[in-house]
Design brief:
By secondary structure, this protein is of the alpha/beta class. The protein is 31% helix and 14% strand.
Length: 277
């Protein structure tokens, strides 16, 4: 759950604590809940969150030390998804835990921290007092599984200064369009649901949001179809699942969109390579 993440859009994951409460339909088949229950890490719902160990908390310090070498090898700053098994802006977290997390983020300035939340209404009051125009190394994002959740959540993040603002449209369980007016995200990640009982994603939703991103200058990133039963090679072209696996091995269920791997990243408006290197 940490170094060398298998999540396609990040390099590492870091979970300062584990545990969450389901808040919308996108949570119904939550992989984090399943994993935490199976491994006995934490109970989901209205239960105490489990803070991870001091040893684990030192891992980002190591990534920060190694960041220059990482950048030489990979051509970009190390990206850290925080948190894959929790929510940074969960109101059941002791304030001191969050303060210590932001202290760690400030210390690890060579890492880009991607904070993804389903609770953006809490973000402004829970950000540190020195947030100002945003930390140069923090990207703020929301999860939005459909149009309703996007409309509920995006405006809370849109008004908060940040180096990058992004949307994780995953698991996509309904169509989504970006607004025609007002602030837009810098980046949209799309993806279908995976695992047992996965709900299907319609390939037309993905084509639509990818086209919408291109028209509006937003970086598009399609992570995966989730299952091969949702892959357009099967749904639209009549391929067998075995044939689709051979033709498209990108992510769970494949990831090609009309034969193309769409995995763009945004350009930060504020990160100064000279200052942060």
């Amino acid at each position: 759950m940490a170094e060398n993440s298998k999540i396609e859009w990040t390099d590492h994951t870091f979970n300062p604590w584990i545990g969450c409460t389901n808040v919308s339909p996108g949570c119904d088949h939550c992989y984090a809940e399943t994993m935490a229950n199976r491994r006995g890490w934490a109970k989901w719902g209205n239960h105490p969150r489990h803070r991870t160990s001091r040893t684990y908390w030192r891992q980002p310090l190591k990534w920060n030390v190694d960041a220059k070498q990482f950048r030489r090898q990979h051509g970009h700053r190390p990206r850290v998804f925080c948190a894959s098994l929790a929510d940074v802006f969960d109101n059941q977290i002791p304030a001191v835990w969050r303060a210590e997390l932001f202290e760690l983020i400030r210390e690890c300035r060579r890492l880009d921290w991607l904070l993804l939340t389903k609770r953006p209404q809490n973000a402004r009051k829970m950000l540190p007092s020195d947030w100002g125009d945003g930390y140069q190394n923090v990207w703020l994002g929301i999860t939005a599984e459909d149009q309703k959740r996007f409309d509920q959540r995006w405006h809370h993040i849109a008004v908060i200064p940040a180096a990058i603002r992004f949307v994780s449209y995953e698991p996509a369980i309904g169509p989504l369009k970006l607004p025609n007016h007002g602030l837009l995200p810098d980046w949209v990640i799309s993806g279908g649901e995976s695992g047992a009982g996965a709900r299907p994603i319609d390939p037309r939703w993905v084509r639509s949001i990818m086209d919408d991103c291109r028209r509006k200058g937003v970086a598009p990133f399609h992570k995966q179809w989730g299952t091969y039963a949702s892959n357009p090679l099967v749904v639209e072209d009549g391929c067998t699942i075995a044939e689709a696996k051979d033709a498209d091995a990108n992510g769970k269920g494949g990831g090609l969109v009309d034969g193309i791997l769409i995995r763009d990243y945004p350009q930060s408006r504020r990160i100064s390579d000279r200052k942060a290197a």
